[in-house]
Write a structure and sequence with these properties.
0% helix; 141 residues; 11 strands; Immunoglobulin-like; mainly beta; single chain; 4-stranded antiparallel sheet
Length: 141
């Protein structure tokens, strides 16, 4: 299993095997005060080889501050039965997923990251960095 794509967004949902994403590629969040809710979701597309289809798969996602302290963690498991009959030999299967972190509390302004870890031998985690700032930074004095 590999991560095909991952993005922070305002909203994501999976319906009928398709991933719908609204306002993707978030790298900044602006709040009046802290602590404050994170207010964003994670959209991910995983690719699974046909040879892995019958094996249980697990993905772990964690939100960390700049020092590596965990603010939240989620995991999801899945297994594909059986592989799609219309796949070409060697074709990878897509598995979309959406994680809701809108209510996670950000304790202060600063740097954070969302780490997506496929929990498969040889698969590299993906880290999506974002910065939380004060809304007042956007408005001129």
């Amino acid at each position: 299993m590999q991560i095909r794509s991952a993005t922070l967004c305002d909203f994501a949902q999976v319906r009928d095997g398709l991933l719908s994403v609204v306002s993707a590629s978030i790298t900044r969040v602006w709040r009046d005060q802290y602590p404050s809710q994170m207010g964003i979701m994670l959209a991910v597309i995983l690719e699974v080889a046909q040879s892995e289809a019958h094996e249980p798969q697990e993905v772990r996602v964690r939100i960390e501050d700049a020092d590596g302290a965990r603010l939240a963690e989620a995991s999801s498991g899945f297994q594909i039965h059986p592989p799609l009959p219309s796949l070409d030999p060697g074709e990878l299967m897509s598995m979309p997923a959406a994680y809701d972190f809108r209510s996670v509390a950000l304790p202060a302004a600063g740097r954070y990251q969302v780490v997506v870890d496929p929990m498969t031998d040889g698969a590299e985690p993906t880290a999506l960095a974002f910065r939380a700032g004060f809304l007042s930074e956007l408005t001129p004095d």
